[in-house]
Amino acid sequence: MSAVPVTLTEDELRRLKAPARRERLFRLASYFSPLLLLLLWELSSQLNLSDRRFFPAPSAIAQTAWRMVLSFELFDHIGATLRRVGVGYAMGAVPGIVMGLILGLSRPVRRVLGPIFSALYPVPKIAILPLILLVFGVGDASKFVVIAIGVFFLMLYNTMSGVMQTPQIYMDVAKNAGATRLQTFRRIAFPAALPSIFTGLKLAAGSSYIIIAAAEFLGARSGIGFFIWASWQTFAVSRMFVGIVVISAMGYLTILALEALERRFVPWAKH
């Protein structure tokens, strides 16, 4: 018995295609909305609707950025900031992950150390920067330490929550199967915590650039934060906007790289 072909009216076809058409429109809007914002900014500046002293035209900012690229001035500051963020990030992420795994797996350790970390976590990291400068000096060591402190707590709590959210039935099955604590950690706890660990890594990356910008305001002679601060002091607003855009792009690209690593090493997580 052959199937009877179903004929749809034009109105029914239009309704079926509507969701896909809306999705394409939203995708195009997401691509062009930043360009539209820049165009409106440029027009308002050219028509003197905004004060160019505080909001120079995007074309002027682009010209300033191009001159800095040709002179290699910008790359020196980018390299200094990336070095400080990279070292401080590693110094905070590794012990944060290790401590988070320990606290997540051990209730006694969590009861002893948990209140201490809970009391220290809300302290603003920039608020203790003067103390860190006093102890470690105005060199790069103080920048490493203040970034490491901020990253440590984010990694600690994200890793601990990932381990604690592991379904208890998995732990019970491993225990009944005679798995050792090391096997339970390698096969169950750590893989279960990986999505939360990568969430913490991405949050910590954004926080690292926020912290380093503020730290370079005070005690640095290089870096994007120092560049923004020096531009503000000389009222070079176009240069200041270049620094803001550059550090934003650095943070965005870092998070994109972490997301690529997450898709590679945590394929079972929802992306």
UniProtKB/TrEMBL annotation:
Official protein name in the record: ABC transporter permease
Family: Belongs to the binding-protein-dependent transport system permease family.
Superkingdom of the source species: Bacteria
TM region(s), chain numbering: 87-106, 126-157, 209-229, 241-261
Domain (ABC transmembrane type-1) ranges: 78-262
Keyword presence, Mitochondrion: no
GO cellular component term of the entry, any: plasma membrane
InterPro entries from the UniProt entry: MetI-like, MetI-like_sf
Membrane topology qualifier: Multi-pass membrane protein
